[in-house]
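Box 3.1 A note on notation
Throughout this textbook, protein chains are presented in two layers. The first layer is the amino acid sequence; the second is a C-alpha cell string describing backbone geometry. Keep the layers aligned when reading.
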Amino acid sequence: MATCHGIHLLPGWENSRGASLEHHIAQALDYEITLASGALHPTALASAAATTKPAFVTVPATTLPNGVAVPSFQVGRYLCAEGVDGIATVSADAAPWVKINYAEAAKACAAAGGKLITELQWLAIAHDIAGQDINWTGGKVGAGAVFQGLHLGNVDEAQPGEFISDDANERRWHQLSNGERVFDFAGNAYSWVFDDVQGDELGLIAKPFAEDSPSITTAPFPSMKNGMGWRPRAGSDGSGNALVRGGFWNDGDYAGVFRLNYDWPDHRYDVVGFRCTK
C-alpha cells in the first residue's frame, strides 16, 4: 500500500511474492518501506517519499581527474518543469519542460533564481556518480554499467520524475557520495548545458574539444562502454552550438551520465530540457 510517506506493507505481506513489486516501486521512487508494525523493512531505503524531498540537492565539492576543483553547489533533483506563469519548477509529478531553446532555458533558470547547469558542474556530478557502487548494474564500481535511465524506447515522450519503468535496467536515479539522489541524469530527456570549458561568454562552444578537455576525458571508460554513453572525439568542432548531455528515452546505449552532444542553440526539441543550479 503506497502512502504519501512511502510504502506500508500489510500484515504478512513482507514475505509474499507481491512484496518484491513493492520493493521495486520503492527503489525506483526512492520511497521507504514500513512493516505493519510500523518498523522499517530490513531492506528499506531510509528516506522519505520523492514528493517530500527538497527540490534541490547539495553536490559535494569535487576534484576532477584532471585536477580541476569544482566547489560544492546545489542542483535540481529532477529536470525542470514549467510552472505557473512560465517559471521553472522542480517537481516529481511534472513532466520535464522540453521544446525550449538554450537561451530560453538559461533565462528560465535566472527567473527562478538560479543558473543553467555548467559543464564543470555536470562533470562533477557524473564523476561522483561513477564512483559509487550503488550506481552500477553489477553492484560495484566498474561492474556492468552505470544505470542509463529511461533509454530503451519503452515510452515515447519525456516522463515525470515519479514514472517507473517496468524494466529494472531503466532505473532513473543515481546516488551521490553524500547520499543525495538525482533523477534523469541519464536518459528521459537531454539537458542544455552552459559550456565553461571550451565555451564563450554565452556558454556556447567556441573551439574544438582539446585532447585534454575534461569534457571528453573525465569518463572512466570509453565512449559507448559500461553505460558511459556517447561522446565526441578530440578535435571535434561544434563551435556555435550548445552542449546537451544525458540522452533521452529512446537513445539506447548512447544515453549515460557522460553522454555528450551538441545542437543548434536556437532550436526547440521535444527531447531536450534543462536543469538549474544555485
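The radius of gyration is 19 Å. Residues 2-51 form one domain.
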